[in-house]
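Quick one: structure for this chain?
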Amino acid sequence: MKRLREALAKREFAVTCEMVPGRGKEGVTFDAALQFAEETSASDVAVHAVSLTDNPGGNPAIMPDGLAREIMNQGLDVLVHFSCRDLNRNAFESRAMALARCGVDNLLVITGDYPSGGFEGTAAPVFDLDAVHGIRYLKAMNAGLEIPGRHKGTVQRLPPTDFVVGAVVSPFKLKEEEYLPQLFKLEKKLAAGADFVVPQLGYDMRKFLELKRYLNARGLNVPLLGNVYVLSRGVARAMHAGQVPGCVVTRELLAEVERAAEAGDKGKKHNLERAAKMVAAFKGMGFSGVHIGGFGLRSDDVRYIVGRAGELAPEWHKVARDIEFGREGEYYLFPPQDGYEIPAREADPLPGLGRARMPVAYRFSDWFHRHVFEPDCMLFRPLRACYRRLGKNSLAGKFSHFVEFATKALLFECRDCGDCALPDMANCCPQSACAKQQRNGACGGSIDGMCEVFPDERKCVWTVVYKRLKSAGRLAEMRERYVPPRRTDLAHTSSWANYFLGRDHAGMAAQRVHPG
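Got it. Here's what it folds into:
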């Protein structure tokens, strides 16, 4: 039972349908998911996998793993969402191996929404790994994860897994500095080994088209599944209010849904028609499939959507224009394309973005880093020798660490993590400036450039990183540089010492340039 895997490999038009398990061990949401599976398995509806979410909205909910087995027992394939929010890297591996043991091998790796509830108070976020790390980890498991052997200096290889790993991208961002980091992080996910991509939800086909064009321009021939959600009035209102991170419903779309809801069927037929138009447009644009969701989604709804999309296929260019709910001031990377045609050849758009004015503070800190910390600068070897000597004098070492931390706390709000990522993020600290402590790019939950967790008071730090790197003409670094997970064993130690002595991720890289 490898329906999704086979469809992606053969480039058939894959259909996945999303179910949202609720809190507890039974109830309406569980019954709906199992009923959907039962109806689908007994019908001719071509569903390649039932997709199960992982605590959407950050609320407590049952882990989808057990429900996945029940659905598989009914003869359907499953796609389990795998969030990085609640698991440290050891728990991440444990859950992945347990799923592999149960035969669940389709995983959609996501950062995860910030926790918003819990027993006797809000749960603590983990975010030990980001989605890029998670994809790399799962691919390492597929290759046979190497771990320390029983005897010192030996290596043991675990039995390989066979995961098909999906990635997510959120293209529905208003401004350039919020939109482009999403595309750059997607490239890192693909470099990490992602097998397919599901975009976040939105209702502007131009943005979906841009995603396809961007991947073509970068020579990334990866299966891309369009996201389709059958709106209801309640869900549309919640998305419009920003209550579902990353999902965009504009004022105009909400008004359309509200008008349709006055009908006797509460707008269901109208909303199913919109979904069918989107499926037809995705197929016309060359997407590899669709990911269909909706509150109370039934097997008959999917049959109607897919069937109606087939009827609309000859005029997909026209119906695509019916789903253009962009916002005022919306940034588009590519110029409009008549008829939604994708050019046979597409140039990389990055060189054409130009440069911006470099902030004075960033200019100075960047200059300081290049002349003090880069392995090819004059001070690198003397400072490495100095920190070796400091290591032998605990009092001097502690004083040096105090001065370093005080300086960095004042300038960068340093949290003394010991594995500094300031050089990787244009001198922005992920520990203090990012609620999810992301080191490889922005999560998908920002709202008009503001942090998902603190939308009224804090910009998404990756918009700042973008502007700084653009001003320096170094945007290519943002989509190419991989930053490993934080070395938590280095917390509250000198990051400068760790760097010069080759202990942290940047220091290890520097040691390869100047060993010894």
